[in-house]
Amino acid sequence: MSQLLTVAKPRRNIELLLLVLAIGMGVMANALVNLNLGRTFDNDFYTQAAVLAGLSLAVHITLRFRAKYADPVILPVVVALNGLGLAVIHRLDIVTGDTAGQRQWLWTGLAVAAAIAVLWLLKDHRILRRFTYISLVLSVFLLLLPLVPGISAGDVNGATVWIKLGPFTFQPGEIAKITLATFFAGYLSSNRDLILLAGKKIGRLQLPRSRDLGPMVVAWIASVGVLVFQHDLGTSILFFGLFMVMIYVATSRISWVLIGLVLMAVGGFAAYKIFPHVTRRIDTWIHALDPQVIGATGGSGQVVEGLFGMANGGLMGTGLGEGSPDSVPLANSDMIIASIGEELGLVGLFAVVCLYALFIARGFRAALGTRDSFGKLLAVGLAFAFALQCFVIIGGVTRLIPLTGLTTPFLAAGGSSLLANWIIVALLLKISDAARRPTEPAVKPDDKPRKEVHAS
Amino acid sequence: MNQAIRNSWIVAIALFILLFGSISYVQFFDADSLNANPSNNRQLLKTFCSDRGPILVGGHPIAESVATDSDCKYQRKYNDPLLYAGLTGFFSKYAGQYGLESAMRDELAGTTNEALFDRISQAFTGARPQGQSVELTIDPAIQKAAFDMIPDGIAGSIVVMKPKTGAIVAMVSKPSYDTNLMASHDQNSVDAAYAKLVNEPGINLFGSAAYTKTYAPGSVFKLVDTAAALASGKYNKDSVLPNPAAMKFPGIAYTLPNYLYGQCDTQDKATFTFALENSCNTPFASIALDLGQDAITAQADKFGFNDKSLRFPDSVTSSKFPGSSDTLDGPALARSAIGQQDVTATPLQIAMMTAAIANGGKQMKPNLVQTVRTPDLKTVESLKPEMLRQSTTPEIAQQITDWMVSVVDNGIAAAAAVPGVQVAAKTGTAEVGNTGLNNAWFTGFAPANDPQYVVTIMMPNVDVATGAALTSPNASKLFKAVLKK
What we know:
Chain A has one domain (12-439, 446-453). The radius of gyration of chain A is 22 Å and the shape is globular. By secondary structure, chain A is mainly α.
C-alpha cells in the first residue's frame, strides 16, 4: 500500500483561519497602496475588501458542503496571491490611469463563480474521465480558435493566441491547459497497460503500437502547432512539459522522458534555426544588457527595465506605491513579477514564490493521496503544468531563461488565465477531497479504483 | 505510480530552487551593477516626483520643486528660465536630464554618499529624502546685464569669470527657451515642445552655447602663438617679426592676407606690441611656421585646448587645435595660427585661456557651484579653487598682459577702456566661410595690475561693424559693472 496515511479530518476551520490571514493580506496590500499614493479610503476600498472576503468565504462554504475533506491550504494560498495581484494592478492603475483593476475584479468574480460551479456540479472528479475524447476535441478546437478569422484578435505582442468576443479578449490556450490535462489523464489511465505491454520491443525499449499512440500524436501536433502557427513559445513548452510528465507518471519509464528531452532539445535547436522570432528571443536573451539590444524594437528593453526595477527594489523593496514599476512595459501582466520584486523586494518575491511552491506541493500531495489513477494523473498534470508555468514566466522575467509570454498565475492582469487557474483550483480541491476522505465502504462498481493504483 | 509522482515533485521543486537563485542574483548579487548600468535611469526618475533641492542664485531659487495636488507630488519650476536655461538645463522624465540638473543630480536629489546618514535615519522615520540646495557663483545683476547685451537674432555668448578662483560670475547665451516646457508632467506637451525647440536654429537645448558650442576663435588665438613664441626662447619682448601684406608659400600661388582693418599695412616689420595692437595676421603665421605645429599644439594644450574631460560641473565640449588629425601643410598651419582652418573653441575656453594669463600663468578650474547645503542649511560642499595646469610662466603671462593693455590703450580694443582702471584685452574676427560675416570675439580682464574679472564675448555671424559695436563697448560696461566703477 502506497497510500498516504492521512488522518480523516475535514480541517475546514483551519482553512477559515488561514483564509482570514489571506484576505487580511490582500486588504492590507490595497490599504498600503492607497496610503502611499495618497488615495483616500473611499467606498471602493471597502467594497473591494468585502467582495474579496465574500468571494473567498463563498468558496469556503461551498467546500464545507461539497468537499469537506479538501486540502485546507490550497484556497488561502490562492486567495493571498489573487488579492496581492489585485492590489498591485490597482497600484499600477493609479499611475497609468488604466482601468485594468476593474476588469480584474470582474474576472476574479467570474473565475470564483466558475470554481464554485465546478465544486457544486462536479460530484466526483472521476466523472471527467468520461469526457476524455471530448476533451481532446475541445483542446484542438480551443487551440485553433485564435487562428480563425473574424474572432482572432490577430498578432498581440508577437503571438497569435487571443480571440476577441465583443469587448472581451480571451486566451483559449489557458483553458486548453485543463482540457489537455483531462484528455491525457483519461487516455493514459485507460490505456497504460496497452501502451506499456503491447507493441514491439527494441532492446530494452518497449515501443507502443501506433494506434495506441494516435490520439497522443494528435495532441502533440496541436501543441507543436501552437509554436509554429501562433508563435507562442511559452505555451508550447508548457504543453510539452505537461505531456512528458503525464506519460512519465503513467508509465514510470524514465527512458521516455529522456527521449522526450532529446526531442525537445532537437526541436528547440531546429526552432532556433528555422523561426526568426525564436532566434531573436534567444539572441536578445543572451545579449540582453547590450545597449543596442536594449534600445532595439523587439529588443530586451522590457526584460532589462524589469531587471532594473528588481535591482532597485533590492532586498526589502521600495514599498508598495514607492517604486516606479510603471516604467516597465506590461508591468501589470507579463512583468508583474518585476513590479512585485521592485516594491516588495527579494523578501516579498520569495514569499510569492513560496506560495506558489506551497500550492504546487498541495497539488502533488492530492495526486499522491487520491486512489484512482485518473485522479493521480490529472492532479500531477495540473500541478506540474502550474509549476512549469511559474518557472517559465518568473525565470523569463529574472533572465534565467528567455522571456516567453506566459501569464503569471493569479497575479497577472488577464481574465482567461484567472478563469482557467481558478478552475484548476476547484479540480485540485476536489481531488484532494477524494484523497483525504476516509475510505467509504460502498464504492460504485464502475468507479472502483484500478488495481494498479495500489501496486507501486 | 506514486514514485513517479514524487520524482516529478522533485523536478518541480528543483525548478523553484533555480527561481530562488535567479531572484537572489537579480535583487541582491547583481543589484549594484544593474543599478549602475548606464542604460538605467530609474535612480534618477525616482526623484522626478520628489522634493529636489533648489538651485540658487544670489539666495533666490532659479530652479525649485513646488508641491502639487497630483500624484506626482512635486513639480520642478524654473524662475527666469530664459536667463538661466543654459545653466540649469532641465530635469524631464520624457526629454532627459541636462545641465546642472544632470551634473548635480545626486546632490539635488539628496542621494550623495555624504547624505547617507540622513537617508538611514529617513528609512526609520519614514521621511522622504530631501534634496540639497546648490548655490551658484553667478551674480544675478551681471548675468542679467550680460544677457541684455546680446541682441535678439544674434546667437551670442558672454562669459564673466574670476581668474583667481575660476568662479563663473555670468554665463549667458541666446536664443534661450523656457525650461518649464521640458519639466512638465504631461508627456504630450513635453514631446511637442521638444520637437519644436530641437529644430529651432541657434537653440542649445542641452546647455549654454558658451560651453557646449565651439567657434573659430580667430585672432584671440594669437595669444597662444605669442605665449609659444616667448616660451620657445627664440623670441623676446623686443623681437621684430615679419609683417608682409600677403604671406607667400614656396611653390604655391596661395597667399595669406594680413588683417585689413587696422594699421597692419603701414609697415612690413612689426614688434609684438604693434602686431597685437593691430591684430596683424602674418607675424603670427610666421611664428607658427617657424616653431612648427607641435610647439603650437603643446601651448594650446597648456591653455586647455583638446581637454575632453573638463567638467564645471557639467561636461564642457572640448576646444580643438589643430582640429584635424593630419600634419598641417604651410598654409593650413598659417591659417590655424590665426584661429581659422579647423581650430575651434568654446567661449568658456577662451575665457579660461585669458584667465590663465591674468592669473600669472596658473589656469584655475572653472566652476559654477559655490556651496551645497543640506535642507537644515549645513554646508556640505563649498567652492575650493583648484588649479588645472600651469599654462605659461608668470613672466610670460606678465609680458602678454602688458601687450594686452596696450591693445586697449593704443590699439584695436580701445572701446573696452574703463576710466581709472587698466584693462587688458584681445579681440578677434574669425571669418565664417565666404559669407563676409565674422565671429566677433572679445576677451580681456581688469584691472590689469590685479586681475579680478575676465570677460569673454562672442557674437557669431555678424559684419565687422556690428561685431565691433557688440564686443569692446559691452566689455567696458561689464567691467564697470563688476568693478562698481
